[in-house]
Amino acid sequence: MRHAARRHLRVEAVLSILDVDFVADPLGALFWREERLLVVADLHFEKGSAFAAKGVFLPPYDTAATLVSLAQLIAYYEPRCVVALGDSFHDGAAGDRMSDADRSGVGGLQQGRDWIWIAGNHDRELPRGLSGEARNELAVGRMTFRHEPAAGAIGEIAGHLHPVARVAGRGGSVRRRSFVSDGARCVLPAFGAFAGGLNLHDSAFDPLFGGPARSFAILAHVMGRSAVYRVPHRLCLPD
Questions:
Q1: Which residues share a beta bridge with 115?
Q2: How many angstroms from the chain centroid is the CA of residue 216?
Q3: What is the distance between the alpha carbons of residues 102 and 49, in angstroms, rounded to a whole number?
Q4: Neighbours of 89 (CB within 10 A)
Q5: Against a cut of 0.85, is the pTM above it?
Q6: What is the pLDDT of residues 124-153, one digit of tens each?
Q7: Spatial CA neighbour of 126 closest among 89, 151, 163
Q8: Are the beta carbons of 148 and 121 closer than 8 angstroms?
Q9: 134-173 as b/e, with b when 16 or more CB fall inside 10 Å?
Q10: Superkingdom, according to UniProt (predicted)?
């Protein structure tokens, strides 16, 4: 029933990179219909338990919550392949801290489809006992899927930077996770429940999208509750 309701409410946005149209989903994933390829970035499984080990006690349910959202996407799109763009695990020991239920949940989502884990800066190695193919990057047609975006790249789909946009509204401003694209590349928002975000005006985006002389073609695809909204970069606010 919840899936049916969500299907009714979902408003998808088309995000075009070179000559390829992707669906930008309100949960923070890209879907390539022709390839039946679902792309998510920065799951950061077990970030909560990593913080708890340092004495910062967060609710220990971030992995389970992230898996629930991922399960909704997989049920909706029925992908042939899932590509996780790195930092799927918050650190090298995250796999050891995962509960049996969460490990089983990952395995259940992998059934009947290919699953590619792209290496990130947090998870150079795939945790023991987990299925799927580990790669540094993946090329499909004109698209290259990797964790950390590279200056000057074309046809690149990456994560790592956790983009967020601050947008003015009637009651003030809102700060939401966002895709950012100039039509030649895209940086995905972080998908993990506890993942933070970096404002699109941060200098880390300058080598990717033109620095101070930004083009009006740069769009933030801002995640709402059930829709993705296109906002020109020039209308996004700094923090």
A1: 82
A2: 24
A3: 13
A4: 30
A5: yes
A6: 888 888 899 999 999 999 999 999 999 999
A7: 89
A8: yes
A9: ebebbeeeebbbbbbbeeeeebbbbbbbbbbbbbeeeeee
A10: Bacteria
Domain that holds residue 184: 13-237
The total number of residues written for the chain in this structure: 239
In the chain, the number of structural domains is: 1
Closest CA to 156 of 2, 18, 10, 8: 18
- Per the domain annotation, does 132 fall within a domain? yes
Are 66 and 43 in contact by the 8 Å Cβ rule? The answer is: yes
For the stretch 22-67, pLDDT in tens is 999 999 999 999 999 999 999 989 887 766 566 666 677 899 999 9
Instruction: For residue 2, tell me if it sits in a domain.
Output: no
CATH number for the domain spanning 25: value is 3.60.21
Place of tokens 């392949």: 81
- Chain centroid to CA 145: 12
> Tokens 């975000």 — which residue?
197
DSSP state of 23: E
The reply to whether 8 falls in a domain is no
What sign for the dihedral angle of Cα 109, 86, 174, 24?
negative
Pairing of the two strands 133-135 and 114-118: parallel
Give the whole-angstrom CA distance, residue 231 versus residue 233.
Answer: 6
Hey, what are 75's tokens? 């049920």
The DSSP 8-state label assigned to residue 89 in this structure reads: B
Q: Which two tokens mark 66?
A: 């992230």
Note whether 86 and 121 are within 8 A (CB): yes
